[in-house]
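Action item from last week, closing it out:
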Amino acid sequence: MNIENTSIFASLGDPRNTRVTYVQPQRGPMLVDLHTNPTADSPAAKVLAMRLLLLSSGQAIPFHVHHRKEKIYILVGNPQQSGSLEVIMYEKDELKNYFLTKIGESLVIPPGTPHAIVCRGGRPFCQVSVITSSQDATDIQWEPGVEILLENEHLKAG
């Protein structure tokens, strides 16, 4: 995993990406529940949720924050088809970019940490396993103005 300090604006204007389409994941082909059912013999299963997120190259999930739940992103899938996942986090008063480039690489997002993700890398899509420490679907706060970003089909770089 590589890390770079940069601003969100520099990241979205990155020459590696000529087009960014903002999306909000919805259950269906883009976001599939892998495990959300508690079992009597597993106390952790009552709170943990595991989902598969499929993003097309150039798709971005805008900044948002989960106040109570921790999240883990794991890059999964076929190495010949999967692009890299850029995770942009606001940590300690600065934006940091993390790049998951190899299948199996992971990144933990602590509770209360604003973050965004972008599928990059010139491959058709990114498959990401998302594990969260809560099944509470209401624990999400989108950045101000996300609705405007989602209404735009894309932003041109540079």
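Closing note: Confidence is low (pLDDT under 50) at residues 1-18, 153-158.
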